Amino acid sequence: MIPGPGRFELPEGLVYLDGNSLGALPTGVADRLSQVVREEWGRGLIRSWNDAGWMQLVGRVAARLAPLVGVDPADLHLGDSTTVSLFKTTVAAARLRPGRRVLVLEPTTFPTDGYVTAAVAELLGLELRWCDPADPLASVDEDTALLSLTHVDFRTGALFDLPGITARAQERGALVLWDLCHSAGAVPVDLTAAGADLAVGCTYKYLNGGPGSPAWLWVAPRHQAAARQPISGWMGHATPFAMARDFEPREGVGSFASGTPPVLALSALEASLEAFDGVTVTELRERSLALTERFIELVDEHVGDAVEVVTPREQGRRGSQVSLRHPAAYGVVQALVARDVIGDFRDPDIARFGFAPLYNTLADVETAVERLVLVLEHEEHLDPAYAARNAVT
Amino acid sequence: MIPGPGRFELPEGLVYLDGNSLGALPTGVADRLSQVVREEWGRGLIRSWNDAGWMQLVGRVAARLAPLVGVDPADLHLGDSTTVSLFKTTVAAARLRPGRRVLVLEPTTFPTDGYVTAAVAELLGLELRWCDPADPLASVDEDTALLSLTHVDFRTGALFDLPGITARAQERGALVLWDLCHSAGAVPVDLTAAGADLAVGCTYKYLNGGPGSPAWLWVAPRHQAAARQPISGWMGHATPFAMARDFEPREGVGSFASGTPPVLALSALEASLEAFDGVTVTELRERSLALTERFIELVDEHVGDAVEVVTPREQGRRGSQVSLRHPAAYGVVQALVARDVIGDFRDPDIARFGFAPLYNTLADVETAVERLVLVLEHEEHLDPAYAARNAVT
């Protein structure tokens, strides 16, 4: 059962609809981190690698994350940024299909995914091919090593058919790398049931790991023996403490490790994931859809002539956010922030509202639309104090 | 002036000589991190990227670090693991010398440095050449793109002549990448004065950033326009919030950024570096040499026939640790830990003692040697409880 916002330290009176950018602070994280710093680091010092189980931290976090994406914890690795994780998995995927020379990419993906794929194509002498977002599979052929897709579009909230696309790309001999940054923790994903190949995700959105928390990556067990990522470090060595001159990879996904794990950040993440205790992915999806559905209904009813809902109305094609198009979207978002409703802006004309099923409520939805109505009625979005565009995350 | 151990939360009665593996906890870090979690993340939420200055965090940490390695903060980047930082700088260096096909590497370097260099050589189709540790320059010729060296040997504590080797390798047209993991914060380094090319270092040893804290990298200003690292992410883009499809690097070392900065870890590091306030690198070096010199003297005097000092006795060739060779070094280290003197073991027969000039004292040195004498006299190192070897960091 969804326990409600009591598991989070949300400021009173704030309607926070930006958990798709930075998740809220779960209760218990601050105390846990304080204990790690004061006791484990401060008093345990170097002994804590063994005594406080820092060497097992990646595995403990993986065990909490695994059910949310339908995998075995043993096949997950955590510790780098999303970008670095994408780089490692993209190189590994290309190497798993050495006879194929094309990496297929979708132009509405998050920019980093494109930059990384282009960088890997250059590094390995491969070809980059942009596909049609409406039909990515049309670009996948016998030359394709990898199709790299983001499951939920960060601008529109549209959802790709992960199992269907995976199966059809695999029929053509390609691998598929899924970016699950906007899925894990809000949209059900069963990578094992889908027979997926590789996946990557951040942990600071719906997983609430904190700003810049470490990303995760997953490699299907059947690929692990042959998969080789290029950033070999001592923590990916079969016997790190032998300090051997030549590299010999650990078995399994452990070979995707590079350096010393980020203990403070992983400890915060471990505590954060306790907010999912006793909650099933089915319950998360039900709550998420109830929230987005109600938001769309109320928007249609009250401001339907002023904004365009760009997120798919079909539930099966929707992630956990709703995006509204408005020519002064930046001003709309800023005026709402001034009224304690936090969403965010995406260039050029999108106001995004993320619905975190663990802590957002139907009351949040209603308050947000009420205040959106007021903003538009009073033309607060045209107020120069809100309408000037600048860099926000 | 060195303010002494009062700037650190050291457990009473413990002699901690492992700051070359994990630095002690500076006072103020726990409170600062608690404030970042509770206030900046918990209450500020997404607004803290601007309001709490998270976007400027890398620059603020760089400003504190820069004087310790003799560089301009604008030329430093922080955020990845040491391994990833080595990978980025090694690829960039090789690309800066496109006509040259050899990466030269020193066999006693930290294993990760070797693994990364070998991985980059494979990726770029280059040749790996192992040099003689006694004369690395003998392997540097007109085919050499890069000489990759660790400034202070992690096993022996021996120090390379950074300015001299840099100058002579550059005369042959090669670049030099320095790994300063065991230098920064204890051994003076002036990268600018040395005319160095590239450098990398961790922050969790003498810089006391906490377990697995983010690494730094430095690229000489003269190389920045042409230097290209391969892990392109949105934070390295000239205009990240334009969310452009194609990558256009930021000017300067900012192009070495990849993903979202690790805010919690960088905040801890920022607070940690306050322990260096008002301390010069010259004072750090004087204190460090006073500690290692006295340790060597006392070891020679009291247990000189039982152990071999493998660290250079010449001060100019010594880092900030002293390593002792003993056939039962593992048992020696474990028996000392049981007597509250913490050093560490390196395969196969090295007991390492790191001297952190910010918090170790001459009293620590004396106590450590007194207890080493007792351990050896009572043959505690042969006690089966201490003598069994297992994985320790």
From TrEMBL, chains A, B:
Keywords: Hydrolase, Pyridine nucleotide biosynthesis, Pyridoxal phosphate. InterPro entries: Kynureninase (IPR010111), PyrdxlP-dep_Trfase (IPR015424), PyrdxlP-dep_Trfase_major (IPR015421), PyrdxlP-dep_Trfase_small (IPR015422). GO terms for cellular component: cytoplasm. Its EC number is 3.7.1.3. Transmembrane segments: none annotated. Gene3D superfamilies: Aspartate Aminotransferase, domain 1 (3.90.1150.10), Type I PLP-dependent aspartate aminotransferase-like (Major domain) (3.40.640.10). It catalyses: 3-hydroxy-L-kynurenine + H2O = 3-hydroxyanthranilate + L-alanine + H(+); L-kynurenine + H2O = anthranilate + L-alanine + H(+). The keyword ATP-binding does not apply. It holds the Pfam family KYNU_C. This is Kynureninase. It comes from Nocardioides aurantiacus.
